Amino acid sequence: MPTLGxxxxxxxxxxxxxxxxxxxxxxxxxxxASGLFCLSSSAMSPAWSGYVMxxxxxxxxxxCVTRGRFRRFVGSVVGATVFAASLVxxxxxxxxxxxxDDRDGPSxxxxxxxxxxFGLPALRFVLRNRFGWGPPPEPLTDExxxxxxx
Length: 150
Fold this sequence. Notes:
By secondary structure, the protein is mainly alpha-helical. The chain is globular, with a radius of gyration of 18 Å. It contains five helices and no strands. The model has no long low-confidence stretch (mean pLDDT about 85). Helix content is about 70%, strand content about 0%.
């Protein structure tokens, strides 16, 4: 189990962000994926889903190559979309799905896993960054941290 000190190190690394080469490469890949989503959206059913994915990948690309308030805004747009999608998936499975699907299809367990792994961290990101409004989020401090135990 990671200690609180390791959590602070991870939080500091996340706040520093990626290096310029990695950010550029991920941003370029996201923009290329956006173009592919636009080109293939006419073959998708429904077609608007391809345009939504293209918009999200554009936001991901912009979040990679920008800094500051704009980066927090587009990151929050992606985070809010991921949280909303995970919440809709979870609600739909509770309303009409099976508890466990033996063929790896949609189920309440899969929806709960998706919500816990993607939805809740996305919500945390959105709440910390507040769509770019206000000051940047504060990293964890020693005063706010409980004492470490072994």
